TrEMBL record:
<dbReference type="InterPro" id="IPR050570">
    <property type="entry name" value="Cell_wall_metabolism_enzyme"/>
</dbReference>
<feature type="signal peptide">
    <location>
        <begin position="1"/>
        <end position="20"/>
    </location>
</feature>
<dbReference type="Pfam" id="PF01551">
    <property type="entry name" value="Peptidase_M23"/>
</dbReference>
<feature type="domain" description="M23ase beta-sheet core">
    <location>
        <begin position="133"/>
        <end position="167"/>
    </location>
</feature>
<dbReference type="GO" id="GO:0004222">
    <property type="term" value="F:metalloendopeptidase activity"/>
</dbReference>
<keyword id="KW-0732">Signal</keyword>
<feature type="domain" description="M23ase beta-sheet core">
    <location>
        <begin position="52"/>
        <end position="120"/>
    </location>
</feature>
<dbReference type="InterPro" id="IPR011055">
    <property type="entry name" value="Dup_hybrid_motif"/>
</dbReference>
<protein>
    <submittedName>
        <fullName>Metalloendopeptidase</fullName>
    </submittedName>
</protein>
<dbReference type="InterPro" id="IPR016047">
    <property type="entry name" value="M23ase_b-sheet_dom"/>
</dbReference>
Amino acid sequence: MKILCKAIFIICFISTIALPAQKNYPQNYFRNPLNIPMQLAANFGAVRSNHFHMGLDLRTNSQENLSVLAAADGYVSRIKVERYGFGNAVYITHPNGYTTLYAHLNTYYDKLDEFVKERQYKEEKWEQDITFSPGQFPVAKGQLIALSGNTGGSAGPHLHFEIRDTKTEECINPLLFGFNIPDSISPTISGFYWYDRRFSTYEPGANGVAVKKAGGLYTTDVVQVSSPTISLAIKAVDKANQGFNLGIYHAELLMDDRLIYSFSIDQVSYDDTRDINGCIDYTRFTRDKMSIQHLSSLPGMTLKNYSQPDLNGLITLQDEDIHNIEIVLKDVNGNTSRLKTKIRLNKTSDKVSPSGKVVMPNEGKTITTENAEISFSKNAVYDAVNFQMSEKSSPNADGISNTIILQSPYIPVRDDYTLKIKPNRKLTGEEKGKAIVLFDYASDTKVIKGKWDGDRMEVQFNRLGTATLLLDQSLPSVSQGWKDGTLVNSSTLRLSGKTKIGDIVSFRAELDGKWLRFARVKDDFVYVFDEKCPKASGLHTLKVTTINTAGNTNTQTFTFQR
């Protein structure tokens, strides 16, 4: 099964709660939400692109449409229908103060599915986010609530399952609630790293040290460091008994037998989930697809319980003596691995000398070039960034500005920054209305329509890379998988969306003049035949209107028989 969770996942989150805190959560209150044994494809806190994994990914044997069951008594308090993210999701609120979430579903149980469908047709809108009162859809423990699937931001059939504090909406590690998932395997350590912390973890970056295993203990040769101020990091996974690479639940860092850092992945808020980027070596993760876990807190990190003055993991070497280092890793079941090594300050190297404009944690900054301006908030970065910004001619045929180079796509930013770009020629009012900004951040691109501030377009974004102002006068379109006027015997109609630049941001289909419910599946639009278009109902006209990011609108008409 190929799903997103098959990458190497390393987890980070500091908590003052020690392992015994598991006992604070109700044990065996929640049941397995599937009728097959719980097998994990990813655990709570696993590293995803720009966010923690906020629940468990439960394997469904590479199948869809398995029964999904209520984990405990309660009521359906919310459902979501969305293109990405959770896809189709159900939230159940329970009387013990917790809410469970079930995501990437194909369909809801009949009564709920009918309600959602009626709402979609009434509002003429496929995407939905509906909340319910306690008496509308009560459910009993073990009751069928949905069928599993592969909808939303999923790359393979599975069930995403979360447990949240109902009042705070913080996600809590479901493995703390006593589910029966056998695990007798200790975490595996494959990498050890040190960082020169006199300027930033980003420069000069990670220094790798070979790890050896002898029996149940991991070791390295004596680590010779060239900076008096350093921090450490580790690459590790927990195989459990499942075969998938899971994240580390708990870690401790000791120097000369004194605890200087620890974390436990107990709970995370969706407001803080992006702070995963301050817990890992973001450069190695985005550039090399390698998860390296910091065993220290970065100066711009504000994640709850993350930064503790007396346990920040920063090491200051005031002599050239050999110092003992021990790293302890544990899973929820207490399976433990240890790495023991020694570090010694050797010859001190020169400190990094910034060549750009330094952006510091907890300080705002505005940087300009001839035709662009970028403004960072005080919460913009986790660690000092030697920020370099420049311009070059755009190779894009639709480009109407220089390409603005914003440092590097391998440096994270915490929140949205503001970018203003000046076009390289005077635009008409109509052209201004069709202007968009293309962001290229190495692994992907994003097109954003901004607003005009005088002669500059202003946009907000949260990743670095390159940005170019484009003029998009192209029309979006959809293509059908049948010839006009032919008889369609399949159970669905599928239209494939296409744009030259950006995305289809609005889609509307009308069958013989009435709105028809198409679901968005990645870049396609799918209608499942229902009573709105029964068999033997003759010739039908389907009118489809699409709008792209720039605001260009296209209307197409198709015909078919049913």
